[in-house]
Amino acid sequence: MIQLSELILNPDGSVYHLNLKPEHIAHDIIFVGDQNRVEKITQFFDSIEFSTQKREFKTQTGIFKGKRITVMSTGIGPDNIDIVINELDALVNIDLETRQPIEKLTSLNIIRIGTSGSLQADIPVDSFVLSKFGLGLDNMLRSYLIDEVSNLEMEDAFVKHTNWDLRKGKPYVIACSEKLEKIIESDKMHKGITATAGGFYGPQGRVLRLNIQDEALNSKMDNFKFGDNQITNLEMETAAIYGLSALLGHNALSLNAIIANRASGTFSEDPYKAVDELIAYTLEKIALG
């Protein structure tokens, strides 16, 4: 039996942070970071059956072209992803009344739609990136036993290439869901490694008034290659989503509209248009899948 202190429920029986019960979510779930982006997606739905919000976690479930889909805002960062995926898994794989794991486990399909900055000059603003791998620089996933789901060879190659300071914790690498990749991929998508940082400023190489541990890290990441894969972009959620999903038996894929190019110093003239196009594309693929 899972103790009250370990799986916290609200007085109405919903999971603590998300404010959700099992019947509130679909098996196909879209993650966005910004709570205001939830309705940018659900505005295309034929109907909405459920809506709730607690803190930054806003959820709407409805029907798009016959497919039941949940859209949820996660907020920013790997720590929020730890909350969201563990509580979603509890909704489908733990009996909340008996507090016992359910014998027959359920796999969710989780697709993140986000915005990001490209690290490569040949991945221009307003293009799309499909994250073949998530490279975690954040250290959150190291709280779990991850060796069975991580790419140890790529991790070691990255540590060596960047002369990574292990006092920050060892980076981890997790692959996307092959199932979802086959459903979503197209010629529109650039593919590669998405680096996930634990912060927006220093962890992503931005310098305001504080010096950072490795001023050359971004340039080292720019020219890191492993096989046919290079680091395409840098954000704050993908590797954590991939890692927890793989550990818990869920399918996960991260898609980003590129609104900035760090290599060229450019920013999209109309970032909302790029995001809207990625949303429309993804919804159509989910409906057909």
Automatic annotation (TrEMBL):
One of its GO terms (molecular function) is uridine phosphorylase activity. Residues 29-268 form the Nucleoside phosphorylase domain. Pfam families: PNP_UDP_1. One of its GO terms (cellular component) is cytosol. It catalyses: uridine + phosphate = alpha-D-ribose 1-phosphate + uracil. SUPFAM superfamilies: Purine and uridine phosphorylases (SSF53167). It is an enzyme of class 2 (transferase). GO terms for biological process: purine nucleoside catabolic process. CDD domains: UP_TbUP-like (cd00436). Its EC number is 2.4.2.3. Signal peptide: none annotated. This is Uridine phosphorylase. It comes from Flavobacterium petrolei.
